[in-house]
Design a protein that fits this description.
heterodimer, A: 269 residues, mainly alpha, 71% helix, elongated, B: 293 residues, alpha/beta, Rossmann fold, 2 domains, six-stranded mixed beta sheet, three-stranded antiparallel beta sheet, 10 helices, 12 strands, 27% strand, globular, disordered C terminus
């Protein structure tokens, strides 16, 4: 009997389809990962509608890049760390390990899920910001080129870190409770919900260690008008440093994820 | 000759930090048979099975599953196995049909997914999301996912725990059909009637050791099925073990002069009695065993 196994890529794409379907059927994921940044963009634009953030930038314009960055972090880091922790606890990972499915296929499915959800979420954020909130959407190709690498580095580092962090919650039930506060804290200190330059210096120093700050700053460089970087703490967008920081997190996440990832629960011996 | 064995294990040992879970188990499972592994909780059943499935590494021993050492089992080897684990709560938002069709895509020669769904009796539930299935339906879905790859060897870990009697009967029919189709099946169970009904051979594992391997009828050896004749004598309850219970009853009748023998009972031990005796013998003498080594 000749046994020709289906290719890992083909199975991976099939898993992507399944993952996406499942994502949009889970209410909790949909609300707290997918729609959260969109809702917050609406709220912040309304609350600070009269505020001028220097250089004629209004609240909607200032918070749009932050919410895009935040959304990327949610659809990659938060989504993966919670779902993988639950899949491990509920026995899906063990079940998959018992089939001829290649581990690569599983991760292709997860990467596919992150790409589909983050692109959809970004499109929705952009449409709401541009069409409803009157935010100027950049048209220069150079800015979109910047956007592309920041988006790719952001989703990639968020994904590998999410895979690594999925081993931290002790059970599937605890996953949301363990992951969400971490994400929320990072959002607060990384300038997603506040004007970054208005945060205390020590808080910014802490934020500079983590990837979300660099992701948010990179997105501001794309969506805020030229010259606004004068209001940033360093007086510049720090794109070079941001690229380095995100790349370091990507490599660290990749190494750690490979070392700590497991198919069975910790108590499974 | 070797290819007749679906599973061949010699001297399997697995140690955990504070106990020896499996202590020198030998096991042969022939191709095409249903083999039931019995034993109390913590006896080493699940550990043994998970080593055969490649989930855990043995500390010692020679293990061949479909001719391959599970520690070195590759994807082709996995495609020849079907595994139905003990618990499952996963994939709540996907439907029966979505899952069975998807899992079929993992295998080189899968069964037809719709036929598999029909054979486990879930055709009416094919569009139902798994979180809405009952416990028995969920378990049948697990079996569907285990058999859709057309495995040569199927592992079933306590498949009917929590089933009502009707659901268990249906489940047994499903397993019998798989056996008829030529699938080798290793089933672990707590239920003696399940083992008796399904298994060609039974292995009893207790305290990490294989106590006995036999057909359900022969378990416990020749003496185990000896009839017991008991009655209330003048000195209290008496019990006699005999191979000729009819003669014993005739003798009693003569002794009581044809009148009623008080509380007369003739019985043969059930598989459950024999099983309890087998594992009881181990549980009662752990000190002795330790000293003997």
């Amino acid at each position: 009997m000749s046994a020709v196994l289906p290719s890992p890529m083909k199975v991976g794409l099939s898993r992507t389809g399944l993952e996406v379907r499942q994502f949009f059927r889970e209410r909790e994921q949909l609300i707290f990962t997918f729609f959260f940044p969109i809702v917050f963009l609406g709220i912040f634009s309304a609350v600070f509608s009269g505020t001028d953030f220097a250089g004629g930038v209004n609240a909607a314009t200032y918070f749009t890049p932050g919410m895009i960055a935040s959304g990327i972090f949610l659809t990659s880091f938060q989504s993966l760390s919670i779902t993988i922790a639950m899949e491990r606890d509920e026995g899906l990972l063990k079940r998959l390990r018992g089939t001829p499915m290649s581990p690569q296929s599983y991760f292709v499915g997860k990467i596919g899920l992150v790409l589909v959800t983050s692109v959809l979420q970004f499109g929705l954020l952009l449409a709401i910001a541009g069409l409803l909130l009157g935010v100027d959407i950049p048209s220069e190709p150079s800015k979109w080129l910047h956007f592309l690498w920041i988006f790719v580095l952001g989703t990639a580092s968020g994904s590998v870190l999410g895979i690594a962090f999925s081993v931290v919650p002790k059970s599937g039930k605890a996953a949301s409770a363990v992951v969400t506060p971490v994400v929320l804290l990072l959002q607060f200190i990384s300038g997603v919900y506040f004007v970054y330059s208005s945060l205390p210096a020590w808080m910014r120093t802490v934020a500079e260690i983590f990837p979300l700050k660099w992701l948010a700053q990179g997105m501001r460089s794309v969506f805020l008008p030229a010259g606004f970087e004068a209001n940033e703490p360093g007086g510049s967008w720090q794109l070079g440093l941001g690229a380095i920081m995100l790349s370091v997190w990507l490599v660290v996440g990749l190494v750690v994820a490979q070392r700590v990832f497991r198919w069975t629960r910790r108590d499974a011996g | 000759m070797g290819s007749d064995e679906a599973v061949r294990v010699r001297g399997l040992v697995k140690r955990y930090p504070n106990k020896v879970a499996v202590d020198g188990v030998d096991l042969d499972i022939h191709r095409g048979e249903v083999f039931a592994l019995l034993g109390p909780n913590g006896a080493g059943k699940t550990t043994t099975v998970e080593i055969l499935e490649g989930y855990r590494r043995a500390d010692q021993g020679e293990i061949r599953v479909l001719g391959v050492d599970p520690a070195r089992g590759d994807r082709v080897w996995r495609s020849r196995l079907g595994i139905v684990a003990q618990t499952s709560r996963d994939e709540a938002e996907l439907s029966v049909a979505e899952l069975v069709h998807h899992f079929a895509g993992y295998y080189p020669n899968p069964r037809d997914p719709d036929e598999v769904i029909a054979s486990v009796g879930l055709t009416e539930k094919r569009r139902t999301r798994t979180r809405k299935l009952s416990g028995g339906q969920r378990r049948r879905l697990d079996v569907a996912l285990g058999m859709v790859g057309n495995p040569e060897l199927l592992f079933l870990d306590e498949p009917t725990t929590g089933f009502d009697p009707e659901a268990r009967r249906q489940f047994w029919t499903l397993i019998e059909n798989l056996r008829t189709a030529g699938t080798t099946i290793l089933v672990t169970t707590h239920y003696l009637d399940e083992a008796e009904h399904l298994a060609d051979r039974v292995g009893v594992i207790a305290d990490g050791r294989m106590v006995e391997v036999a057909t359900p009828e022969a378990l416990g050896g020749r003496g185990a099925r000896t009839a017991r004749v008991s009655w209330l004598s003048a000195d209290g309850m008496r019990e006699i073990r005999t191979d000729e219970p009819t003669a014993e009853v005739a003798r009693l009748m003569a002794q009581y002069g044809g009148s009623e023998v008080p509380e007369l009972e003739v019985r043969r031990p059930s598989l459950e009695d024999i099983y309890l005796e087998l594992i009881g013998a181990v549980a009662a003498a752990p000190e002795l065993e330790g000293a003997a080594r």
